[in-house]
Amino acid sequence: MTTANPAHAAATAGAAPAPITRPDAQVHFGVFFQGVNHHTVWSDPRSGSQTDFASFVHVSRTAERGLFDAFFLGEGLRLRESHGRLHDLDVVGRPDAITQLSALAALTSRIGLVATQNTTYNDPADLARRLASLDVLSGGRAAWNVVTTDNAWTGANFRRGGYLDHEDRYVRAEEIVRAAQAIWDSFADDAVATSRDAASWAQPGSVAPVAREGRTLRTHVTPTVPRSPQGHPVLFQAGDSPAGRTFAANNVDVIFSAHGSDLDDALAFARDVRRRVVAAGRPADDVKIFPGTSFVLADTEAEAREKQRWLVREQVTPATSLSLIGQIWGEDLSHLDPDGPLPDHDPVARPIDGTRGAARQGADPTAIARALRTRAEQEGLSIREVVIATDRGHNGFVGTPDSVAERLIRFVRTGAADGFNISPWLVPDGLDDIVDRLVPALQERGAYRTAYEGTTLREHLGLRAPLTRRQANGTERTAVGA
Amino acid sequence: MAHQPLVVAVELDGFGAHPAAWRASTERPDAVLDPAALRRTVLAAENAGFAFATFDDALTTTDATAHPAEVAARLDAIVRASFAGPLTTRLGLAPRVQPRSVEPFHLAAQLASLDIATLGRAGWVVGDDDQPGLADALDRVVPETPEARRQEVRDVVTTVRRLWDSWEDDAVIKDVTTGRYIDADRVHNVEVTTATFSVHGASITPRPPQGHPVVIAPEDVLDPSLADVTLVAGPDAEEVAFRAERARRQGATRVLAEIAVVLDDDTAPGAGGQGNRGSAAQRLAALDAHVPWQPDALRFVGSSFGLVALLEQLAPAVDGVRLHPAVLTSDLRVLTRQVLPRLHATRLARAPRLGQSLRDVLGLDRPENVFSRKDVA
Ligand SMILES: Cc1cc2nc3c(=O)[nH]c(=O)nc-3n(C[C@H](O)[C@H](O)[C@H](O)COP(=O)(O)O)c2cc1C
């Protein structure tokens, strides 16, 4: 909300003329489903069920028709609250990600299936095995989006409670990821008998028990799932702090970032990530960057902007505007008039806990509030108007399929991003015009695949072998997708 | 026939219940990792008209090198059941999960998601927690005494049921006038505290179509009064009937007998290993020559007619059976071709109909929600 930064302005004006460093780079898409935030419009007559399996089937199949790399499910392990009460204005309720993706694996054949899974409140042996099982049954299409939410508020739903210090969230994350990799590597490539007449089902000694003792975890386990056709589930990471970026550079394949609207911001983020990746001893292009984004498409630029104005008003209802202001001020402001002025006092001093649903993690509420007040006073805006004017819903691409395609190509060819993770604002049809109109516009420009070339997610993303499956000299030990 | 039709369920893990089943299977040894093989198996079970399928599971094995002859790989049961969901339309799907190996909060969401994706066909076979290697595999201290373990199983089942109730059925209101998607008064924190864990909030997943997916548990794992379906095992039909009666006295709602089956299989020419064809006794002897098998359950070895006769004999004592085919590619096929059609023709059993939930198939009511009940009181 603080970054009032209409993306189309930044991208069309091309604030700084970034050089085209990768003239052949292709645009890749993933779909992030479904966001439990005010950007998903549930009130529109076209809006269907947010939880019925059929909605998930429609979105995943549409994405596969559009040759997307991946279908993502987010995760939040406690229902969002505002002022101690269930937050009731936005979409609520999601399936368990791995369970849902396992069902979708049976109905899709190529698209990657990404499960956002928390590192703090999962058991390493159990989580590694569920991910590996999905990876095997989907023919090598699974990924783990590694998130670290560690607060005691979420921990109240789990056996260990809020056991982990915030500073240790990435210590735990690294320990659980490394334990998972060891579990995924426990079977030798030729462990399983190829004939019923073999002396034994598994070659003796071909399944290595895993023993890990770390600062935050311990497990001694004989794993039961061999590697999939892609070697390991692909690792994604979503987390923006310096510690999060370093963790990503050391461990993962893809970053799901929040830097995808402003080209300069995206470039700065990409440079920072590549510096960390090289420092970690990996090739600079070893980690792909997929910013989250959304699209508003129409036949003309004017229509697209009109549609965008309509959309933001649907997203920021009068009640939502008061709720968002209440989150900044730290008090229930639902009694205020959304068409009236902002409160004239400063917020109560306290840290905003970003994982309760707000994206302004760590930001200073007093500074945010003052900036909003200044803007409202200067432009004569009401509460709802100033929320609309500064809403993050602006942070997407608005335009005709052709103009949006040009801007996306610029992002990937300047190295600001490798792909985009799209949050549709309408369920279940929100991806349809993207697949029917934007994907062809990209294909006409030679910037988007016209068929899946591989079968695994690792192949779609153009990744190398898993980190633990490379030899010291950089060559790959196994043929990926074999 | 005076009594209700029998519910006939089938266990589909691995290559079959016999530890040497992989040698007699017509599937390749790596078929336990093959989505196409899983698809074939669940479709066979659905087309045969089984009421539901179960998927055995364990988080770990004991050291695989200690039992090199046995199959050392197995995919997570919830993942398998969920994959089977959209491939089937009538078959109930019940993964086996050890209560100790999971977070109750995650398990409630996983089973609710399976129930939503299958439009009400999910069950949960409550696993036996006394599994070799499990305590070492888990990243936490676990209760070790048998009584503490039993108590934890009870607590997990009760908590998971509360989590399924944490959303009332009509919680989503989509009230455009007030801008409210959900009625916050119809979503409840579960506020559970037990000896070994606590759970504060409501589930992240709405109440599933069945209210509660069907909780299925062996009599020695969970008190029959806390299960929807109690599984009883015994060395012979008399003992099974006795235990079924005992489980009912302890509050069991539905009782299913566990039966391991090895059937005469002279129908299949061609494919397969040496153990694949012949009389049931010959097949069993060939399998046992690789690894001897001592199932806990009542074991039937013989013709399909003999099995039907056994089921007739058990019918007054139990609500149904769970069959454990020794070798899926042999015994499941014989069950499909010779046993289930006979059971259906004589009305001893009935295939699930399209649109029935697993509760419907079992004749179980959809449970009331503990939280809305409190409102009424
Ligand atoms: C684009 C993006 C998407 C995220 N999605 C999720 C999510 O679905 N579930 C979740 O628990 N956390 C999510 N997070 C939160 C992060 O994973 C992480 O836990 C949090 O940002 C703390 O890490 P940090 O301090 O490195 O930022 C997301 C973060 C970003 C940047």
Automatic annotation (TrEMBL), chain A:
Keyword Oxidoreductase appears in the UniProt entry: yes
GO MF terms, alphabetically ordered: monooxygenase activity; oxidoreductase activity, acting on paired donors, with incorporation or reduction of molecular oxygen
Gene3D superfamilies the record matches: Luciferase-like domain
EC number(s) reported in the record: 1.14.-.-
InterPro entries: Diverse_substr_monoxygenases, Luciferase-like_dom, Luciferase-like_sf, NTA_MOA
Domain Luciferase-like: 44-416
Keywords: Flavoprotein, FMN, Monooxygenase, Oxidoreductase
Origin superkingdom: Bacteria
Family: Belongs to the NtaA/SnaA/DszA monooxygenase family.
Name listed for the protein in its UniProt record: NtaA/DmoA family FMN-dependent monooxygenase
Organism expressing this protein natively: Miniimonas arenae
Lineage of source species: Bacteria, Bacillati, Actinomycetota, Actinomycetes, Micrococcales
UniProtKB/TrEMBL annotation, chain B:
InterPro entries: Diverse_substr_monoxygenases, Luciferase-like_dom, Luciferase-like_sf
Pfam families attached to this UniProt entry: Bac_luciferase
Protein name: LLM class flavin-dependent oxidoreductase
Entry keyword set: Flavoprotein, FMN, Monooxygenase, Oxidoreductase
Organism for this UniProt entry: Miniimonas arenae
Molecular functions per Gene Ontology: monooxygenase activity; oxidoreductase activity, acting on paired donors, with incorporation or reduction of molecular oxygen
Keyword Cytoplasm annotated: no
Residues of the Luciferase-like domain: 30-260
Source organism, top-level taxon: Bacteria
The UniProt record lists the keyword Transcription: no
